Amino acid sequence: MFDKPIIGITMGDPASIGPEIAVKALLNKEVYDICKPILVGDADVFNDIIKRLHLDAKINPIQNVEEAKFEFGNIDVYDLQNVKMNKLVFGEVSAMAGNAAFGAVKKVIDLAMMGDIDATVTGPINKKSINEAGHHFAGHTEIYAHFTNTRKYAMLLVEDNLKVIHVSTHVSLRQACDLVKKDRILEVIELLYNGLISLGETNLKIGIAGLNPHAGDSGLFGTEDAEEILPAVQEALLRGYNVDGPIPPDTMFAKAATGAYGGVVAMYHDQGHIPFKLSGFQWDAEKKQMASVKGVNITLGLPIIRTSVDHGTAFEIAGKGIASADAMLLAIESAVQLSRYRKQIIV
User: Fold this and answer.
1) In whole angstroms, what is the distance from residue 200 CA to residue 339 CA?
2) For residues 184 and 180, what is the distance between their CA atoms, to the nearest angstrom?
3) CA-to-CA distance for 16 and 129, rounded, in angstroms?
4) pTM, 2 dp
5) Domains and CATH numbers, the chain
6) Spatial CA neighbour of 313 closest among 302, 300, 327
7) Which keywords appear in this protein's UniProt record, sorted alphabetically (predicted)?
């Protein structure tokens, strides 16, 4: 048995659904049964959400982790006081909101690096708001890599049977094709293998997607599959990994969804994200909104644990009380699992 880990959860963009799903998640007593959660952001933002949505909770503002009570119904918030509530508008891109979101991420990274918390979970941020605030990053993954001085890292998406790692993410499609290189593919295979083990996965067979239609079809539709991906697969086999590929992605993801692979390697952002979100996102056509949004984003390769919801800020429904906390709950559960594994191997 392990002590319950302390999990730092960022509010995300304060003009988004981030604060709402964070509070809603912590209104599940099961969360407190498995961890000690602390929200990181602005106490005023969370108090506003509670009052606006008539939620049965209270906020306990703190300035250090030692002040946290970890009591269900009395939510601890590491209060950064970066938001002027009279200037905050739901669904609006702003430098103030971007700076507050960035500040929460930076603080939770610092807390984890200092060992004050055991794992981090991030709410959704708006990249334009972050950049308008002068923080020029493509997303969470790049922020974490920069402030932890990490060079080898990758995005892993987890939803039921689908566990998808990416060779590249936040770059143009043209640039993504140029980044399909043998060494990088081998790097993400190793990251995925270690990630599957840390998540308790017993099926360690890894599928490797092709880049071009039909995985190049013997060079008819491009040469990257034969010249970069296949050599990486062959080298991975020599190193003892159970890998299969390159496989046409339209076939590979259909098999992966049934559990044929413990994890799969996607060559670029949308190749991995589209099948993943088809699995985890449920659209209510009648209400014209998402009925449920599931899926966890995990950054592998970091010296600290980072999981996240794998959906955006949903500005169009911010403050309306209809956002689903499903993905946030899954992200917290994954952070707890990863924390327990890390403590186990350290012991």
Assistant:
1) 12
2) 7
3) 11
4) 0.88
5) 6-150+303-346 (3.40.718.10), 154-276 (3.40.718.10)
6) 327
7) Metal-binding, NAD, Oxidoreductase
